[in-house]
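Quick one:
INPUT:
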């Protein structure tokens, strides 16, 4: 709470607009001894001076706003924060590095973002693999140990899409077993279904998050040429169906509609015309935000997808890149998380969003060779904390710079702090109807 008090002091002293103008600014928040008021005031004064000095440093250009993340900033139900992440993949070397004498352990992969995820009201990822049981395999037909889902969930992911080009990699049984594992762990999911009846009951997914009634929709461009086994259902991109689904979301009382699409061209850092057309279609027919994945790289984004529309902002993030994978190509070894803030105001729900880049490191931390998702800004500032090698720093810097340049002027960047106190994530899952 002491950390929050300082944050609010800063927010009171510096108007929001002024904070936004500070391109490179960090709040370093200190624990305060509540018993010593004078000490508190002195530290506050020092802190304000430090912030003012840092505001002079505009060496990193862009729309960057610093926030205290990983802490619930507003305990009232007037606002919520949702984090979106990209494609959670499972290549052969990820399976090998997760193997232990007792089974599999993916928890280390998420340890550096866990605090950030748990500080949000909802954290979402795309599970781009099947949980079909052994034998486990990466590309081209992905099947990972169930432990991957358990550890991702434990790290803070509270909702998953299963709708992507790999969901039928292991045929009907693979799709069905994946759903069975989700349900046995009571983890919400959307995008693939055992049959049409199940889809009709549960889709669009409606969730009540701290009083906000949210609708989630998801679609994929295809399934790598593998036919969808009867009677299972995979949500394919079909504008007639999408239009009906958006209407259904409204009919079910959704206050805010989130569309997540698996689309685009692999390794292309710019969205193609089909993505742009579909994004406009979604926004014009009731979606409030469109967020995508699949290309393995971060693509361009916009807060103004419908320039001639007075509805604002119209947010489209075409591709967040991979959440974790063994793809080490340039621009494909990291991704971005999107933080969406929804605020209940007199006129309705106001929205705002930021991105946070992360880089996936493949290397040793405390002697354990693993894949680690690292918040890239913090890792650049404090490489020693993450035990980075010179090579790591070079690759991380390349990824971070490229991502920043690509999104400059399109989305606001969020910084990330290393230490934080985490409350448990509170999400109320209520299947539709
Ligand atoms: Zn994909």
């Amino acid at each position: 709470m002491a950390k929050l008090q300082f944050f609010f002091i800063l927010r009171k002293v510096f108007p929001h607009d002024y904070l936004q103008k500070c391109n490179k600014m960090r709040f370093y928040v200190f624990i305060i001894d509540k018993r010593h008021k004078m000490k508190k005031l002195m530290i506050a004064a020092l802190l304000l001076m430090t912030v003012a000095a840092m505001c002079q440093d505009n060496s990193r250009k862009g729309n960057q706003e610093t926030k205290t993340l990983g802490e619930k900033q507003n305990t009232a139900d007037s606002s919520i924060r949702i984090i979106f992440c990209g494609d959670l993949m499972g290549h052969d070397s990820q399976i090998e590095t997760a193997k232990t004498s007792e089974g599999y352990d993916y928890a280390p992969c998420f340890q550096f973002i866990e605090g950030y995820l748990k500080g949000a009201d909802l954290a979402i990822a795309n599970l781009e693999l099947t949980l079909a049981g052994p034998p486990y395999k990466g590309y081209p037909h992905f099947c990972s140990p169930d432990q991957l889902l358990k550890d991702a969930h434990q790290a803070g992911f509270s909702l998953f899409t299963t709708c992507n080009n790999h969901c039928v990699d292991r045929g009907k049984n693979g799709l069905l077993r994946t759903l069975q594992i989700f349900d046995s762990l009571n983890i919400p999911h959307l995008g693939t279904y055992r049959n049409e009846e199940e889809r009709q009951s549960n889709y669009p997914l409606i969730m009540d998050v701290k009083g906000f009634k949210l609708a989630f929709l998801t679609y994929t461009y295809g399934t790598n040429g593998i036919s969808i086994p009867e009677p299972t259902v995979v949500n394919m991109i079909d504008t007639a169906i999408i239009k009906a689904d958006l209407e259904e979301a409204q009919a079910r009382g959704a206050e805010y509609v989130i569309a997540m699409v698996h689309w685009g061209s692999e390794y292309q850092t710019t969205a193609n015309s089909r993505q742009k057309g579909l994004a406009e279609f979604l926004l014009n027919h009731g979606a409030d935000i469109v967020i995508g994945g699949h290309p393995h790289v971060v693509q361009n984004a916009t807060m103004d997808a419908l320039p001639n529309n007075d509805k604002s902002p119209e947010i489209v993030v075409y591709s967040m890149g991979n959440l974790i994978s063994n793809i080490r190509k340039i621009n494909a070894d990291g991704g971005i998380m999107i933080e969406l803030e929804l605020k209940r105001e007199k006129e309705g729900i106001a929205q705002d969003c930021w991105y946070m880049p992360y880089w996936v490191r493949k290397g040793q931390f405390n002697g354990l060779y693993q894949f680690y998702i690292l918040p890239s800004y913090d890792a650049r500032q404090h490489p020693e904390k993450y035990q980075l090698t010179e090579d790591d720093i070079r690759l991380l810097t390349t990824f971070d710079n490229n991502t920043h340049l690509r999104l400059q002027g399109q989305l606001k960047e969020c910084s990330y702090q290393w230490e934080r106190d985490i409350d448990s994530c509170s999400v109320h899952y209520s299947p539709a109807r």
